[in-house]
Design goal:
The protein contains 8 helices and 7 strands. By secondary structure, it is an alpha/beta fold.
Length: 246
């Protein structure tokens, strides 16, 4: 059996955890974007072991949208695992990522996609953020600390709107929390580069945030040290000669 995502140029990964209240908005917003995406696109929902009606909602919206597809975990594994599953299962040449809360706009994928001609990844930078002042402070502080620790130069790694060349995304060494380090992980690959592009930001109107001060800030600090350890041991090689191709 073939993987249906191989029939598309662009697969949008949408991780979900207890987002039943957002299903109608997700269906409407993503279906609208697919109609005029600059690349032939599909949506791959990843249900991260939701305990509400999310899976039932997924079955429903995927049954009436031919470009919507899903995979569902048997238990909750976390956001990084859901994104990794999307990378593993998507077989299109380009992969995108957006959060189910739709605080970023799927329409902005068309701002990012053209940069994949010259870059391995394009990431959104949220302008005029619709978050509380404390949440914005947490984000600025965490981003500053991460830049100092990783040297990735990225402005807003927490922005949940990104596009990748699949070949680059599938090489990311993924661990829990590593979704915050995509620019730094990309730069481990020889010659890889990314581009930042301003995107819009909206308030959450349904569901509740899955993040708090502990998993937003404190765990990310520990992950910075994990990244430093991993970077010092990351394996790189170039083959200079081979006779395996006939």
């Amino acid at each position: 059996m073939s993987n249906i995502t191989s029939e598309y140029g662009f697969t949008i990964i949408v991780p979900l955890y207890n987002e039943e209240d957002n299903m109608a908005r997700l269906e409407s917003s993503l279906a609208s974007f697919l109609e005029h995406s600059i690349r032939k696109a599909c949506v791959l929902f990843v249900n991260d072991g939701s305990r509400d009606g999310t899976l039932a909602g997924l079955r429903d919206i995927c049954s009436r949208n031919s470009d919507f597809h899903y995979i569902s975990f048997s238990e909750n594994c976390g956001l990084s695992a859901a994104i990794k599953a999307g990378f593993d299962y998507a077989e299109s040449p380009l992969i995108g990522y957006i959060d189910a809360d739709l605080q970023t706009n799927p329409e902005d994928f068309n701002l990012l996609l053209p940069y994949l001609e010259d870059y391995d990844m394009a990431i959104g930078v949220r302008v005029k953020r619709n978050d509380t002042p404390f949440k914005r402070f947490q984000s600025r502080f965490a981003n500053s600390f991460r830049r100092m620790m990783t040297g990735d130069g990225a402005t807003d790694t927490g922005c949940p709107l990104k596009v990748f060349r699949a070949a680059a995304a599938k090489q990311f060494p993924m661990f829990k929390g590593m979704h915050r380090f995509f620019p730094a992980l990309l730069l481990l690959q020889d010659g890889a580069k990314y581009k930042e592009i301003p995107v819009s930001h909206r308030p959450r109107v349904a569901g509740v945030s899955k993040f708090n001060i502990w998993n937003r800030m404190m765990s990310s600090f520990a992950d910075c040290f994990a990244y430093r350890w991993m970077k010092s041991r990351y394996i790189r090689y170039r083959v200079g000669e081979s006779d395996i191709l006939r």
